[in-house]
Design a protein that fits this description.
By secondary structure, the protein is an alpha/beta fold. It folds into three domains: 245 residues, no CATH class; 178 residues, Rossmann fold (3-Layer(aba) Sandwich), CATH 3.40.50.300; 61 residues, no CATH class. Helix content is 57%, strand content 10%. The strands form three sheets. It has a six-stranded mixed β-sheet, sandwiched between helices. Strands 4-3-6-7 form a four-stranded antiparallel β-sheet, covered by helices on one side. Strands 1-2 form a two-stranded antiparallel ribbon. It is elongated, with a radius of gyration of 30 Å. The protein binds adenosine-5'-triphosphate.
């Protein structure tokens, strides 16, 4: 069995992911052990801060790695956690002197650190939900800038809310944590939560939306909601990390959670590789070692009798150099893109017995008809689709052909909510699709593929199909089974563990159809599925589509320029030209239609070829 085939089962794929995370945790625990055993109390303090940083950076990566948006705002959550936990745990006597103006309802609790933690997490959760409702609407650079804005606002509030924080003065009297095991366990807990989330339904949804928001929406994922979940979990975990940080420091000020800290943590995340949980852990360990080594050099050291001069700011400079080197030499980070090769890891996975997957619960056989009525859409005066009406019934493959720019893709985009129709409707089973939000279309069992490949490039082939099944409403076990079924149907089982962007072109085309079929659609809209395939691949795809139509009775709308392919598959063909439907009927009827011939070869040539008996066949055979 080939190495990749070895993992082609959900249990083994999951185990491969966990192995990577466990390896990273091994690095963390090993480093903690070396620090404490070799460097005594100094090493213990470094280890404490390193564990807190692991919790904070993994929390940060829960949002950044899964959404692809770099956040500079997580210092705000850390500050919230530190101040909230500090106030709740501070001895009453110290509190009276440190925070004399603290409102009565907030003073004198004297909770233990563990006792305060649920309340602190609740505060973090509420704050994350509040801020996330705005930030989750944004993407890319604007989202990143919004998080920076959040950091600046919270920093200013922390300075002005003197009765709670002592303003820019040191906030002291916070009970100290010195128990390394407790902090290490907390860090491991955060790593486990992050790993579970990443593999969960919501983790898969948000990673799919990160890679392609349009394709994710077409599957029924609501990207904004998926980002809100990521932000809320990430912010809550960062609040926990902040509380721990505050208890390790014992005294801090708003500056402790500002740009310096945020920059260091972003560097740690990027150095390790922000798209993986293990990457965040390894990044923290690597940068901690770097920072402490450079810090020793900063004060000037003597090497073989030569005393090096003191260089202030060398630690920060080293962070800058580290991030530049990583971006230049290894943009995916130290751990990003790392795949388990053959050897110990593969042998371990081999021991996992693939349980027989459940058979997916069958959905009712479909009888639906997709009806388009008078659909029109213009773009700045260009009439892309004008008054187009026809049916796509279940159990039939309907062809939609026409020259370039005829309006075929726009027609599909109107049905699937990608574009709003100017006029007209599309309905299935009496339900109007036009007017529905994109991610609601799949509820009516209409799935699609895209003209240009729109796979989730950072997800494996298996995850691409799994996420579609989950978005269609399948439970986890059924979704696993559906994903395996579709991968098998398209001969992709052996490459299930490969990232979609590493697959050969033909496999990627098949994967996109497998993904759409995992949604168990009643109607499937395929936009140029054979484009770029060689004749053998096209024939193979035709065989598979014929089998799928027969077995599942689904209705397929097939757009393609390869008319041999269309003729072989379709018993009914619709022809569009310049946005309008110009013909509809059996392949023979369409072939005989002069308007179709004219659309394909032009008016002049039609006239010249008028006597040639083979003209009609030539037109649709090319
Ligand atoms: N988002 C858009 N903005 C502006 N014009 C658009 C947009 N989408 C489509 N069009 C225009 O609408 C017309 C129809 O395009 P469409 O992509 O639907 O044609 P098509 O039949 O799918 O062509 P092809 O076979 O080349 O893919 C074209 O003139 C195109 O430029």
């Amino acid at each position: 069995m080939s190495e990749v085939a070895l993992y082609a089962h959900p249990a083994r794929l999951r185990a491969a992911n966990w192995l990577r995370t466990l390896a990273a945790l091994g690095v963390l625990i090993g480093t903690v052990a070396v620090l404490t055993l070799v460097f005594g109390r100094t090493g213990e303090r470094i280890a404490l801060l390193m564990c807190v940083n692991v919790a904070a950076v993994v929390a940060l990566a829960v949002f950044c790695g899964n959404t692809g948006i770099v956040s500079f705002g997580h210092g705000a959550f850390m500050a919230l956690g530190a101040y909230a936990s500090g106030i709740l745990t501070m001895p009453a006597g110290l509190q009276r002197s440190a925070l004399p103006e603290l409102p009565g309802w907030l003073s004198g609790y004297e909770l233990s650190v563990l006792g305060a933690l649920p309340l602190v997490l609740l505060v973090g959760l509420c704050f994350a939900l509040l801020t996330g409702s705005a930030i989750s609407r944004l993407q890319g650079a604007s989202a990143a800038i919004a998080t920076l804005g959040l950091l600046i606002i919270v920093h200013s509030i922390a300075i002005s809310a003197r009765e709670f924080t002592r303003g820019s003065q040191t906030f002291y009297g916070v009970p100290r944590i010195t128990d390394l095991t407790f902090v290490l366990l907390a860090a491991i807990g955060v790593v486990i939560v992050a790993r579970l989330y990443r593999e969960s339904r919501w983790g898969l949804f948000v990673r799919a939306a990160r890679d392609d928001e349009d394709a994710a929406s077409a599957l029924g994922i609501y990207p904004r909601r998926a980002r809100l979940v990521a932000w809320t979990l990430s912010g809550t975990l960062a609040t926990l990390a902040g509380a721990l940080y505050g208890h390790i420091l014992g005294a801090f000020s708003p500056a402790s959670f500002y740009l310096g800290l945020v920059f260091a943590q972003v560097v740690m995340m990027i150095v390790g590789g922000m798209s993986s949980v293990g990457g965040a852990v390894v990044g923290v360990v690597a940068v901690t070692i770097l920072q402490n080594t450079v810090r020793n050099l900063e004060g000037g050291i003597t090497v073989v009798g030569v005393t090096l001069p003191e260089v202030f700011g060398l630690t920060t400079v080293s962070l800058g150099i580290a991030i530049l080197l990583v971006i230049w030499l290894r943009p995916q980070g130290l751990v990003g893109g790392f795949e388990l090769g053959p050897g110990a890891g593969a042998r371990l996975l081999d021991r996992i017995k693939p349980t027989v997957p459940v058979t997916p619960t069958p959905r009712p056989v479909t009888t639906e008809i997709l009806k388009a009525r008078g659909l029109s859409r213009s773009f700045a005066g260009v009439k892309a689709v004008t008054d187009v009406s026809f049916d796509v019934p279940a159990g039939r493959i309907t062809g939609l052909i026409g020259p370039n720019g005829a309006g075929k893709s726009t027609f599909v985009n109107l049905i699937t909510g990608q574009y709003a129709a100017d006029t007209g409707t599309a309905e299935i089973d009496g339900v109007h699709l036009t007017g529905l939000l994109r991610h609601r279309i799949i509820e009516h069992r209409v799935a699609r593929s895209f003209q240009n490949l729109r796979l989730f490039s950072g997800l494996t082939a298996f995850e691409n199909v799994l996420v579609a099944a989950l978005a269609a409403g399948y439970g986890r076990k059924n979704a696993n089974a559906v994903a395996l079924r579709e991968l098998k149907a398209f001969d992709l089982g052996g490459i299930a563990a490969m990232r979609a962007d590493n697959l050969p072109y033909g496999a990627r085309k098949r994967l996109e159809i497998a993904r759409a079929l995992a949604q168990d659609p009643a109607i499937l809209l395929l936009d140029e599925p054979a484009a770029g395939m060689n004749p053998a691949e096209t024939d193979d795809l035709a065989d598979r589509l014929i089998r799928i139509r027969q077995d599942r009775n689904i209705g397929i709308l097939l757009i393609d320029h390869d008319l041999r392919f269309v003729n072989r598959l379709c018993s009914h063909i619709v022809v569009m030209n310049r946005g309008q439907k110009i013909a509809e009927g059996t392949p023979e009827e369409v072939r005989a239609n002069p308007e179709v011939i004219e659309a394909y070869i032009g008016r002049g040539r039609v006239a010249r070829a008028a006597d040639a008996s083979s003209t009609q066949d030539q037109v649709l055979a090319n």
